[in-house]
Amino acid sequence: MKIITILGSPRKKGKTAQTLDLFEDNILAQGHEVERIYLTDHQIKGCVGCHSCTKKNDAPGCVLKDDAVPVFEKIILADAIVYASPIYCFDFTSQFKTFLDRHWCLTQNYGTPYASSNIAGKKVALLITCMGTAEQNADLAQEVFDRSMKGVLKCSIVGKYIVPLSESPDFKDRAKETIEKLSKDILIEN
After folding, report:
1. % of the chain beyond a pLDDT of 90
2. Cβ(76)–Cβ(118) below 8 Å
3. Are 78 and 122 contacting, i.e. CB atoms less than 8 angstroms apart?
4. Residue 160's closest CA among 74, 69, 87?
5. How far apart are CA 178 and CA 16, in angstroms?
6. Of the candidates 109, 93, 91, 99, which has an alpha carbon nearest to the alpha carbon of residue 152?
7. For residue 134, what are the contacts with CB-CB under 8 A and spacing of at least 6?
8. Which end of the chain is less crowded, N or C, counting CB atoms within 10 A of the terminal residue's CB?
């Protein structure tokens, strides 16, 4: 299985990155392929809402000249995608949110009975770390992910995995437990 991980944190060695490391090590140890994409290594502009992308159905059709389309091309070829972000002010990081908005270029016929996307049916998971509790902290980001991935992009969400209280001494132990579940869930055959 080929899995793409998307790190939406501006910190390449922060708690989200460390948790994603645990996941990738687990997947690699089981003989699967993993490629991490650091959003901070890519220039990804904000969506301008021109809808030009909706005129192209066989590939991402965004008119913006940046790194988003090459990243989307990798995502399209993957078997599964794990999106990872810390929570900043009750939401995803700005890097992650900008990238999530740009997923619109993967859709076709939105708002019709024929709505689909270039990643329809693809297995996706969300991994969140946060300093506070999951409740009243990571709930809005989870809702945005559900609406985007399931509602708009027609993906198969295997789960949303939250590791709260990232400054607590037991964070790494709880991260390992969460990653065990994520790894098991993403590798289950449909």
Report:
1. 82
2. yes
3. yes
4. 87
5. 12
6. 109
7. 128, 162, 164
8. C
Residue whose token pair is 């709260």? 164
Here the tokens at position 50 are: 């021109």
Q: What is the pTM of this model?
A: 0.95
Residue type, 14: G
Q: Report the 10 Å Cβ neighbour count for 13.
A: 9
Residues in the chain: 190
Number of structural domains found in the chain:
1
144/163 Cα distance (integer angstroms): 18
Question: Are the beta carbons of 4 and 78 closer than 8 angstroms?
Answer: yes
Q: Do 163 and 175 touch, CB atoms closer than 8 A?
A: yes
Q: Distances in Å between the alpha carbon of 9 and those of 16, 20, 84, 93, 159?
A: 7, 11, 8, 6, 20
| Amino acid identity for residue 187 in this structure | L
Say which CATH number the domain at 90 has. Answer: 3.40.50.360
Asked whether the beta carbons of 83 and 6 are under 8 A apart, the reply is yes
Residue 94 CB contacts under 8 Å (≥ 6 apart), including other chains = 88
Q: Considering only 49-53, 54-58, 114-118, 179-183, which range has the smallest mean pLDDT? A: 54-58
**CB 37 within 8 Å of CB 5:** yes
